[in-house]
Request: fold
Amino acid sequence: MRISDNRVLADVADVLYIEVSDVDQTGDLRTQGMDSVRLLELVERWRSAGVAGIDFITLAEDQRVSRWLEVLAASTNDDAGSSE
Reply:
């Protein structure tokens, strides 16, 4: 399942307790208050939304929203190409 960029931004803003417009998409989210607990919450939200290929380590390696959008898009493409 594809998760929208707007949903990603809204979820990030929600766990950081900031407005969507205040999310720095190219900066390291750790400077905005992202920690491992919040990151894990995002992973669980997105898995619950149907993004099965996402994991904590992948997101923790590079904590920029711009990178997460790339990872989520690739994960969605991988999910679509697999058959069970």
